[in-house]
Amino acid sequence: MTDNKLIGVSRRGLLGAFAATAVIAAPTYTNAFGVLKGAGDIRRIRMYSGRTGEAIDTIYWIEGEYIPEVVKEINYFMRDWRSNDVTKIDMRTIDIMAAAHRLMDVSEPYMLLSGYRCPKTNAMLRSKSRGVAKNSLHMKGQAADLRLQSRSVGQMAKAAAACSAGGVGKYSRSNFVHMDCGPVRSWGG
Asked: What is the pTM of this model?
């Protein structure tokens, strides 16, 4: 016979406590990772680029510290593929992307459509589309346009918006979601 009591707490009581915590802890950016603080807190990002054929699957944060070598890899991966220009990516954007990915509970990597854009690339894209902002956060390394085959634009946008940490744009006709670390806002359909 097994003992279902752990120091005066029943297994049923422990499960109930976990269930209550899950209900109270609505998914936000602050708790998407906060559950692991002090218990091996790690953050991982998984992406591939159809433009360059490159892929990245890496842990970039461990116990409150970004890993400098990995941050450099992310900067290079998210470069402007048209000009090959690299900039420092704002890691808050990567955190939002990783938190949203975690909230969606998927193993599939993001397809990166656009990360950093140099001003020349942004101007060219702006001349071809009304949806490109003149002062796009892509030019500051603070935005990414992403796609997942296993999740809809709506599902991705909902997960990113649950982080309450930046801008979320839904581009349903083009099948991608914009995530940035700018002011909290949303747009698109």
From this structure: 0.78
Contact at 8 Å (CB) between 98 and 44?
yes
What band does 26 get if pLDDT is binned at 50, 70 and 90? very low
What average pLDDT does the segment 51-71 reach?
A: 96
| In the predicted structure, residue 43 carries a pLDDT above the cut 80 | yes
Amino acid at 36: L
The label of the residue with tokens 């099948």 reads 175
Task: Quote the CA–CA distance of 59 and 147 in Å, as a whole number.
Answer: 20
Partners of 183 in beta bridges: none
Cβ-based neighbours of 166, under 8 Å, separated by 6 or more: 92, 93, 96, 160, 179, 180, 181, 182, 183, 184
Amino acid letter for position 31: N
Which amino acid is present at 59? I
The answer to whether the CB of 104 falls within 8 A of the CB of 148 is yes
Which of 88, 95, 152 minimizes the C-alpha distance to 115? 88
Residue 79's contacts (CB-CB under 8 Å, 6 or more residues apart) are: 85, 86, 87, 115, 116
Query: 174 by DSSP, 3-state: which?
Result: coil
How far is residue 169 from each of residues 34, 101, 185, measured CA to CA in Å? Answer: 25, 16, 8
Three-state secondary-structure class, residue 104:
helix
